[in-house]
Design a protein that fits this description.
The chain is an alpha+beta fold and 229 residues long. The chain folds into 2 domains: 98 residues, no CATH class; 93 residues, Alpha-Beta Plaits. It contains 4 helices and 9 strands, in the order E-H-E-E-H-E-E-H-E-H-E-E-E. It holds the Pfam family SIMPL.
């Protein structure tokens, strides 16, 4: 997909003195503005799960101790699986407004893996004491950078080809010389995933979590000006 806006005009170029002395005609030139794009699709190969340890009651200190023990329990199990990582993503003590359980303490943690088959079975075990709040497949940042770079090269090649073709259409069969070209990534990569994603948190009993990976896509745009001669 591309857009073209042409501004045709004539410019007097720097000519050899002898040509100028003989009154040579100025060489015609046109400037065109072009925009070309190239998209990419990267398979989602990494899995990210958001879990929370929660406890409600009347004594915040006791609740915090319970939550901390649950997090330590989860840490031991996640750390026992090679290739899994996790980090804390929030800790809160809040009033619930419930007379029988006026306080709630919640710790949120995120488990990540570049090997989803290693994480999915563990999620069922973790739900014995934690809530599974979210499950998301993502593309590898390294793969996104590589795909973005390749798309940039393709967008630039398309820009040069379009400039040559459009200059010829305007009556300038010579070389099309880029004056200025900007490469810009579009919106942040958008993950495209099948729906629904099944979560074990929705089941009555913990078990292996089923999830389907999708793809992440993005766009690189080349826009600028080219001279037609």
């Amino acid at each position: 997909m591309r857009k073209i806006v042409a501004t045709v005009g004539f410019a007097i170029l720097a000519l050899p003195t002898c040509a100028a002395a003989h009154g040579a005609n100025p060489i015609p030139r046109a400037q065109i503005r072009l925009t070309t794009t190239a998209g990419y699709r990267v398979p989602d190969t990494e899995l990210r799960a958001t879990l929370s340890a929660q406890s409600s009651g009347s004594d915040p200190a006791t609740l915090a101790a319970q939550v901390n023990r649950t997090v330590a329990w989860a840490d031991a199990r996640i750390s026992s699986v090679h290739g899994l990582q996790w980090h804390a993503d929030g800790y809160a003590t809040v009033r619930t407004g419930n007379k029988t359980a006026p306080w709630r303490v919640q710790a949120t943690l995120v488990a990540e893996s570049a090997d989803p088959p290693a994480l999915l079975p563990l999620l069922g075990t973790l739900q014995e004491r934690l809530h599974l709040d979210g499950l998301e497949y993502t593309a590898s940042p390294r793969q996104i950078r590589t795909a973005n770079g390749r798309a940039g090269v393709i967008a630039l090649h398309r820009f040069l080809a379009a400039a040559k073709r459009d200059c010829a259409a305007l009556g300038f069969p010579g070389a099309a010389r880029p004056v200025k070209v900007d490469l810009q990534a579009g919106s942040p990569p958008i993950p495209v995933r099948p729906y629904p994603v099944m979560m074990a948190a929705m089941r009555e009993a913990p078990g292996p979590v089923a999830a389907n990976p999708g793809v992440t896509h993005g766009t690189v745009t080349a826009s600028g000006i080219a001279d037609c001669r």
